What we know:
This protein is an alpha/beta fold. About 40% of the residues lie in helices and about 15% in strands. The chain has a five-stranded mixed β-sheet with strand order 10-9-11-8-12. A three-stranded parallel β-sheet has the order 4-1-5. A two-stranded antiparallel sheet has the order 2-3.
Amino acid sequence: MRHLVVLALALLLGIPEATAQQGATAGPTLAAVRARGVLSCGISTGDPGWSAPDRTGQWQGVDTDICRAVAAAVLGDASKVAWQHLTGQNRFPSLTGGQVDMLTRTTTWTFLRDTSLGMNFTAPYFHDGQGFLVKASAGLRAARELAGASICFVSASTHELNLTDWMRREKLAFTPVIFADKDEARRAYEANRCDSYTGDASQLAAVRAGFTNPAEHVLLPDRISKEPYAPAVRQGDDQWFDIVRFVVYGLIEAEELGITRAEAERLAAASESPAVQRLLGRTGDLGPSLGLDRAFMLNAIKAVGNYGEIYDRHLGKDSAVRLPRGLNELWTRGGLMIAPPMR
């Protein structure tokens, strides 16, 4: 029956029958996740605000909530996630080698990563830029004042190339202090093994918030790069690519439509908005076109909330980080967060 509904919708929209049939069945990744009963998600080894254990040992953060949303959409249960804690060095091989079904690890979407590593980036869920954290006692006010400084950063990331390019352009010398993961780099900076710690500004803000005395550290205003984060999946499975992509877009659309975690169930039953009805599965066949239940986005939103709720909980006003939305505001408020029409 579901196949017939999807096929009828496809014919109405001018979609080829073969495409409709493929959309109605489970592709290799979706089939494997369902058979396993668990989504394998690649996250960091510990990154405050993004993926880090709380006091009860539960992993929390923006990255983990994206994974939970996909699990809820695909399996109907946000708890059905197996966390794979990956370093900068092994995150890409772990995805392309099949150890994880998706990679959501504050990973910047770049040209060469997308075209040459056997993976595809789905939908941007955060826009950042590389910055510098320094001790307040140093009295620095701008990145150009780091001439001759020792700078900590993580290997196998975009940070080294960004830093090298920027320093060369500005004709400044520096001493690199390189580490395998963020925890090591943070501890080295705390222990005064380097003058500055460079990384994506949001991560530096989260690191600073976790220090005993955050006021002793300053995030310089300079941004030397653009760093759009997006979940990555293996190449060769368009259905899974679309599932992960449209779960992210669905969370953004939910914020725009005013669908919150607390109100999602009620709105699914009572809202008269056609856009809300479609997104929450009351009408239309968004879910079946992906091989999912009509309530796939209702399940995701009930599990983690809309994009704004996720942001506020881990990075924004309800967190210790208190990072302004900036570029990560909705497009209707001057930001870059926009979803394609969900119809």
